[in-house]
Amino acid sequence: MASQRRPAPPRARRPRGSPRHMGRGAGRAELGMAVPPGRCPDCSAPGPPRGGGGGGGGAPAVPHLGIAVDEGDVLPGALRLMRELRPAWETARVKTKLFTDGITNKLVACYTDEDMADAVLVRVYGRKTELFVDRETELKNFQVLQAHGCAPDLYCAFQNGLCYEFVPGIALGPDHVRDPCIFRLVAQEMARVHAIHANGSIAKPILWQKLHKYLALVKMDLSPKVSNPSLHPDVPSLEVLEHELAWMKETLSQLGSPVVLCHNDLLCKNIIYNSTEEHVRFIDYEYTGYNYQAFDIGNHFNEFAGVKEVDYRLYPSKEIQLQWLRSYLQAYKQLTQEDQGGRGAVVSEKELETLYVQVNKFSLASHFLWACWGLIQDKYSTIDFNFLRYAKLRFKQYFKMKPVVTALQISK
After folding, report:
1. Where is the composition biased (Basic residues) (predicted)?
2. How far apart are CA 340 and CA 117, in angstroms?
């Protein structure tokens, strides 16, 4: 398990083969156009992207290749895609690197340069992930983030996946996200994403719709497993899950957390750190959408514990959280209150404490959501990962933390 001591920042190099994503027809490909380009609600016309605050959300339509890649054997399909996207590449010179850390999709890099500078990433959707991921919305959100400089270039969509630009850097681990030199960059980048639509029309948060959908899938497909205590004694009954969802919706929706464009899946390995340029970038936009600001942050704090070897002793202390939140609020206010001549960057103790309480309460919804997700994945996924064990861990932490965070109060 990763040490809790503060690590030195990663060195200025890109390790070969470092993982990039977690996820969470015959003959020549048919080239068409995918969904219309994504556009910010407050972006009236295409133009150059402005960092963070909205505007310039136009993006070119994404080519769609009529190719399906076999999830069980991705390399032949990936090479076929390269013949379409990179016709100048000699097939014999194309190298491939299969990343194995993902627990939602399959990911392979195709490249010819030794340092992978020209790499194209091919992401193949996991089996049945369309049940809980809206792929059309994902594509639109990818384009919006790309237009604002928050996502890599998107090369094409194909029948069951996407091809996009390789992001140089290293995927973070539990030690990195505790390092103040790095977590300040993460906080600032999250603020940049959250500010993209901050001046547009207020959208509904996707949280409740998503939770109801996941719970419906659990009911439909897993009710024999869930309701039989002899099979899964650590999984709550459907009646308990419905009660907890109703309680969360009643309680959390009253906290006043702003609704912003959220990543919604900011686990460590979805953050790429480039030490040469001293910045971070977020990857994997399957769950991106409008949501509560505090959910996105609370979800990220939960991910300090890791995914494959979960250790909730790594959940950030209040001291670390307050440092992180102060960096976030300073950046968010600068991006969304530019008309105040910089005065908006001043963060009050009340603002800080309010966000701290909101974030820790919304962390419950994160546990609940990914626990339900784990039950669904346990049913369908072909990826070698113990989804049921993961679901049980998230439910356990939900019920452990519920009385702790319920006791937190926002001062009047």
Report:
1. 11-23
2. 41
